[in-house]
């Protein structure tokens, strides 16, 4: 999958550099690599696998709902399906896909050679993969969690779920939380401290900003859900009483803790989507972003405000009225920063020349669907209206509009856009357009009618409905839409796979884009930049179009994995930093973690065992080797 | 155009750094943030449930033993002195002093772990007796995992300094672990107030 | 009767206010959506065509004004919506109806049916039934919402928004129907295996028919005529009284619906089946068929006993 140019012989420095940064090949390489590019691509590929699995569950559910009183799925199986569908999409697809994209792109965009904790990120991938497999092993052995992706108590407590399902759910959360927290912390520190010289804050690419804000949100939000899931796991395993109302606990405490995570979670998914849109808008209008500073502040504001709206998921619980008004207001206000971004994107597009390629189509789809979703969100911010629409299909329509329109469409555009950078080949433009058309039509046909169904009284999470409800026709239509949507995903995946073999060669910068990842080869060499670039403004490749004009850094050692460590605000180099290389011990640490977490669904000793089994490889991986470079 | 083709030469920059010029410092800080948030959430659960109950601790349950809790808290605070000395030794790149204060640190932390075990044993309520018991055990328990983690870290660093090839960055890492020890000790203070003092005041 | 269950087909002052609010919000939302997509379309069809490095201060200034203006308009729109929302909310809150003849009902959510207890100040103080809530037309009814197991939610879209039934919480909720009819209220909080088939029916009747229904409901089950006495014996000797009660005939458990007047109800198993002889027989023979996972065991009674039992239950109007 490399660019098809005959490689010129490398000068000695570059040869040493290539050798230093090379990853081991073959199977060994697969388990030991710490190259952020391989790991990022793995995150994305695995996330797409979970998209397919979660989608298959959804398709089965939609087939069950195609007709009233259908008997395709038993209620128990249906309930496990929608639980695993939601858990998959939120924890195993959306966040890992966006963070994986960040793992791949951030070092390239900020002009460095790897992430600051390469082994930690390698470890995170395995923990993520194993956690996902763990969830599905539960489903396949009849122990699928049955209490919804949000796992409300008391339904998820031992009394009402005596299976292992909710334990498996709680530990799946722990797996994904460990993984995403490690990635988030790594990304934050890398973005702060490893930027190319001259890349001050106001020159950071907008996708990197979105990943930075998202990573901060992950640190706060995922810690919350991890703590909550520990409480639940403890209630089930050792009889603590956090949510047991007969012993001083409170089932509503779960809701507060969960939604304190759950609402920022959807913005964790959405904000990287906006970061992607910023890049697609810039490249496919050939204009620098209008209102860059406003967009940065809007991203930060969205991130902060998103922690102040969670009660809007709980309007029906019976909380004091005055409190509800506050959260109603904050839920209205949170739309304003997004509006800022929307208007700036339109202004940017307006000033330039639209380049009609598939990624731009996905931007249009994003606008069409996400804006609709955001506006139904405004409706849901109203307490009286929410009390009608809450837990009905109206919300199902809303959430799929904002998540698919706001994250999946940009992600699809991103895959087409950055595919040539990762592989050296372009995808098929025709296939991309077909994929867009199918996804667009499918999404709208599936999810728009849901708003109507909700207003006609159809509740959520129902495995069937009465014929006399009159909901049959719209449900049938939605099922057709779901199949079209699935076809769109299939075409996308086929496009990505086949283009690896048949795609036309892309150069370094096939889209004539402006950010640093396009300054290196497609695919980038190990170590990304033999010569780290110096940056003078926001769109370095547009201001320094002649490669020979570009300023570079000299003086980093080629016999070690050296990167530059800079100041936080102005990216002034402070010291050189040696990064660690490949190791098998990250894989073993993940295995140790897995053993511990799986044990935890049976016995609390899993905590001790897991800690020991995970800590030992961790110590080995961090133990210095003779010679000074690890 | 041509005035920008200057190359930036970084070969004279140091290859090591302390404090915010050390990635480990940042990683430690991130971990402190995460664990601190987790403890904050345990405290929030304690406070939230306390407001939902007419009596907190529930009637029939005494508050935890002030003696055991205060001894542990005092020990934690006292341990900050040898910890600070360890940090100073690390920053002076003094291998001998680092080993000395690490040994002392290991001993002190072992005592503190034992005191914590005693404190847990002295808790008047089990974790499964009531939500009060659950939140107390969890808060103390999460803090205990931080204690144990730091104890383990001190041990590993001691081993490293005794037997492994050293470079400047390991001294920096020891300094960062001291920062973590300060965090573990100081974050306990508000929790001590919440668990031990406030039930007796209100 | 046509069963009503639509937010947009309100039958109460509260639902009407919410529907009105929904239309206002929808109208504003539709306009905003059209404006945003419209500007995007114009932007793409008639772009200014500047290049990557071009700087046009006039255009920038114009765009800045338009963006600021749009932002200002958005903020104003949100403010207006917020005010309309707030005043609608205030208008909906019915003042506590303290009149002595206010119907007060304790509604207890259980997996997967609705226990209904009418409360009155005089003996028998409590009249218990299940799954079908009759209310008098045009008057507020005060519901006390509780749960005996997990979280459920009461939602009659034609009458009001929803309110959760949370174990250990007891919340008051006032509903009112201004049009006679049968209103569907499916459980609106996922509560386990049979959440989908936990539907409450609310029947709003003019005052006199309500009074008649209520008076009947208060009465115990009549002594069965001789030709169905066998059915009553079957009920008493089978497993039924472990869970069910027929007041005046078999005082049994209260973990399942009260059957004293079962024949007067429109549906069985919380809206799962129409209440007809064949369905009732099939339900008793195998409750796990139409509602798998529910708490009623299968194969309790069969053959001649089943027929007798169904005959007997059919007399419990």
Structural class of chain C: alpha/beta
The helix-and-strand class of chain A reads mainly alpha
CATH topology of the largest domain in chain C: Immunoglobulin-like
Assembly state of the chains shown? heterotrimer
Highlighted features:
heterotrimer, A: 630 residues, mainly alpha, Cytochrome C Oxidase, Chain A, two-stranded antiparallel ribbon, 19 helices, B: 202 residues, Four Helix Bundle (Hemerythrin (Met), subunit A), 6 helices, 1% strand, elongated
What does this structure look like?
The complex is a heterotrimer of chains A (630), B (202) and C (317). By secondary structure, chain A is mostly helical. Chain A folds into 2 domains: 52-582, Cytochrome C Oxidase, Chain A (Up-down Bundle); 583-630. Helix content of chain A is 64%, strand content 2%. Chain A contains 19 helices and 3 strands. A two-stranded antiparallel ribbon of chain A has the order 2-3. In chain A, strand 2 (562-566) and strand 3 form a beta hairpin. The longest helix of chain A has 36 residues, at 75-110. The model of chain A has no long low-confidence stretch (mean pLDDT 95). Chain B has 202 residues and is mainly α. Chain B has one domain (23-201): Four Helix Bundle (Hemerythrin (Met), subunit A) (Up-down Bundle). Chain B is built from 6 helices and 1 strand, in the order βαααααα. Chain B has helices spanning 23-52, 66-78, 80-91, 95-121, 131-163, 168-201; one strand at residues 8-9. In chain B, helix 1 (23-52) runs parallel beside helix 6 (168-201) and helix 2 (66-78) packs antiparallel against helix 4 (95-121). The radius of gyration of chain B is 21 Å and the shape is elongated. With 317 residues, chain C is of the alpha/beta class. Chain C folds into 2 domains: 1-47 and 56-206, Immunoglobulin-like; 226-313, Cupredoxins -  blue copper proteins (Immunoglobulin-like, Sandwich). Helices cover 35% and strands 20% of the residues of chain C. In chain C, strands 4-3-2-6-9 form a 5-stranded mixed beta sheet, with no helix packed on it. Chain C is elongated. Chains A and C meet through helix 4, helix 8, helix 10, helix 11 and helix 12 of A and helix 1 and helix 2 of C.
């Amino acid at each position: 999958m490399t660019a098809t140019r005959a490689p010129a012989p490398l000068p000695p420095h570059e040869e040493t550099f290539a050798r230093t940064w090379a990853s081991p090949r073959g199977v060994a390489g697969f388990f030991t690599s710490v190259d952020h590019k391989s790991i990022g691509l793995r995150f994305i590929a695995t996330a797409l696998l979970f998209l397919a699995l979660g989608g298959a569950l959804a398709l089965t559910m939609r087939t069950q709902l195609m007709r009233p009183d259908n008997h395709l799925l038993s209620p128990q199986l249906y309930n496990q399906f929608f639980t695993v569908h939601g858990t998959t999409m939120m924890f195993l697809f959306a966040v890992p896909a966006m963070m994986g994209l960040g793992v791949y792109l951030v070092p390239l965009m900020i002009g460095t050679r790897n992430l600051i904790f390469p082994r930690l990120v390698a470890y995170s991938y395995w923990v993520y993969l194993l956690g996902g497999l763990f969830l599905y092993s539960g489903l396949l052995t009849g122990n699928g969690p049955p209490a919804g992706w949000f796992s409300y108590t008391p339904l998820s407590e031992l009394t009402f779920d005596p299976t292992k399902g909710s334990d498996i759910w709680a530990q799946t959360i722990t797996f994904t939380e460990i993984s995403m927290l490690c990635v988030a912390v790594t990304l934050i520190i890398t973005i702060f401290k490893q930027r190319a010289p001259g890349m001050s804050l106001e020159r950071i690419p907008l996708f990197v900003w979105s990943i930075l804000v998202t990573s901060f949100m992950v640190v706060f939000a995922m810690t919350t859900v991890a703590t909550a899931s520990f409480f639940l796991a403890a209630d089930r395993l050792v009889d603590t009483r956090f949510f047991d109302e007969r012993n001083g606990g409170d089932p509503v405490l779960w809701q507060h803790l969960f939604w304190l995570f759950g609402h920022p979670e959807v913005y964790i998914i959405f904000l990287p989507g906006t970061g992607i849109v910023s890049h697609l808008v810039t490249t496919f209008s050939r204009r620098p972003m209008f209102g860059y500073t406003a967009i940065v502040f809007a991203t930060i504001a969205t991130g902060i405000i998103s922690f102040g709206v969670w009660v809007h998921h709980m309007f029906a619980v019976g909380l004091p009225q005055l409190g509800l008004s506050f959260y109603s207001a904050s839920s209205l206000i949170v739309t304003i920063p997004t509006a800022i971004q929307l208007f700036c994107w339109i202004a940017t597009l307006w000033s330039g020349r639209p380049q009609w390629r598939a990624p731009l189509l996905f931007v249009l789809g994003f606008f069409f669907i996400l804006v609709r979703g955001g506006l139904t969100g405004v409706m849901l911010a109203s307490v009286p209206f929410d009390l009608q629409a809450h837990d009905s299909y109206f919300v199902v329509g809303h959430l799929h509009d904002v998540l698919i329109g706001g994250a999946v469409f940009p992600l699809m555009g991103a895959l087409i856009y950055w595919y040539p950078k990762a592989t050296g080949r372009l995808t098929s433009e025709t296939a991309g357009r077909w994929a867009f058309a199918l996804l667009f039509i499918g999404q709208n046909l599936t999810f728009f009618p849901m708003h109507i169904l909700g207003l006609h009284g159809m509740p959520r999470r129902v495995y069937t409905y009465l014929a006399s409800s009159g909901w049959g026709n719209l449900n049938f239509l939605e099922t057709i839409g779901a199949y079209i949507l699935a076809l769109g995903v299939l075409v996308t995946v086929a496009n990505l796979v086949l283009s690896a073999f048949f795609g036309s060669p892309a150069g370094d910068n096939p889209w004539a884009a402006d950010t640093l990842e396009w300054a290196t080869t497609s695919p980038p060499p190990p170590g990304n930049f033999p010569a780290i670039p110096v940056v003078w403004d926001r769109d370095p490749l547009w201001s320094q179009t002649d490669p020979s004009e570009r300023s570079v850094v000299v003086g980093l050692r080629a016999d070690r994995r050296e990167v530059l460590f800079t100041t936080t605000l102005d990216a002034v180099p402070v010291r050189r930093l040696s990064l660690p290389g490949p190791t098998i011990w990250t894989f073993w640490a993940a295995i140790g973690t897995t053993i511990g977490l799986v044990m935890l669904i049976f016995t609390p000793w899993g905590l001790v065992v897991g800690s020991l089994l995970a800590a030992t490889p961790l110590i080995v991986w961090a133990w210095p080797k003779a010679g000074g470079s690890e | 155009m041509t005035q920008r083709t200057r190359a930036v030469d970084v070969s004279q920059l140091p290859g090591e750094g302390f404090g915010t010029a050390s990635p480990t410092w940042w990683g430690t800080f991130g971990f402190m943030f995460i664990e601190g948030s987790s403890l904050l959430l345990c405290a929030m659960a304690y406070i939230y449930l306390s407001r939902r109950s007419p009596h907190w601790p529930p009637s029939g349950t005494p508050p935890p033993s002030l003696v055991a809790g205060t001894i542990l808290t005092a020990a934690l605070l006292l341990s900050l002195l040898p910890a600070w000395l360890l940090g100073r030794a690390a920053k002076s790149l003094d291998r001998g002093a680092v080993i000395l204060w690490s040994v002392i640190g290991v001993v002190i932390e072992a005592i503190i772990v034992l005191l914590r075990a005693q404190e847990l044993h002295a808790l008047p309520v089990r974790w499964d007796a009531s939500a009060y018991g659950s939140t107390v055990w969890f808060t103390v328990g999460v803090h205990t995992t931080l204690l144990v983690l730091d104890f383990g870290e001190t041990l590993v660093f001691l081993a490293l300094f005794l037997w492994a090839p050293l470079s400047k960055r390991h001294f920096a890492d020891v300094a960062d672990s001291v920062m973590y020890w300060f965090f573990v000790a100081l974050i306990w203070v508000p929790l001590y107030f919440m668990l031990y003092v406030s039930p007796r005041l209100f | 009767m046509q069963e009503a269950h639509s937010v947009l087909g309100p039958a109460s002052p509260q639902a009407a206010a919410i529907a009105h609010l929904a239309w206002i919000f929808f109208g504003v939302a539709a306009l905003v959506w059209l404006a945003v997509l419209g500007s995007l379309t114009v932007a793409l069809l008639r772009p200014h065509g500047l290049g990557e490095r071009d700087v046009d201060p006039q255009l920038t200034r114009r765009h800045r004004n338009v963006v600021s203006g749009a932002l200002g308009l958005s903020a104003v729109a949100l403010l207006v919506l917020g005010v309309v929302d707030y005043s609608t909310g205030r208008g909906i809150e019915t003042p506590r109806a303290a009149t002595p003849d206010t119907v007060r009902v304790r509604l207890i959510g259980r997996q997967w049916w609705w226990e209904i207890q009418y409360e009155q100040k005089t003996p028998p103080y409590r009249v218990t039934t299940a799954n079908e809530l009759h209310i008098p037309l045009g008057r507020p009814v005060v519901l006390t919402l509780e749960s005996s197991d997990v979280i459920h939610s009461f939602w009659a879209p034609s009458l009001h928004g929803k309110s959760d039934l949370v174990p250990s919480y007891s919340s008051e909720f006032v509903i009112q129907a201004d049009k006679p009819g049968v209103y569907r209220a499916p459980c609106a909080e996922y509560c386990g295996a049979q959440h989908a088939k936990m539907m409450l029916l609310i029947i709003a009747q003019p005052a006199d028919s309500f009074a008649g229904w209520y008076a009947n409901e208060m009465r115990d089950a009549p002594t069965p005529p001789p030709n169905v006495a066998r059915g009553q014996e079957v009920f008493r000797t089978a497993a039924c009284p472990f869970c069910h009660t027929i007041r005046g005939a078999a005082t049994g458990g209260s973990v399942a619906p009260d059957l004293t007047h079962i024949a007067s109800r429109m549906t069985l198993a919380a809206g799962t089946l129409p209440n007809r002889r064949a369905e009732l027989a099939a339900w008793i023979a195998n409750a796990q068929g139409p509602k798998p996972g529910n708490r009623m065991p299968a194969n309790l009674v069969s053959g001649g006993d089943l027929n007798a039992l169904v005959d007997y239950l059919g007399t419990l109007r």
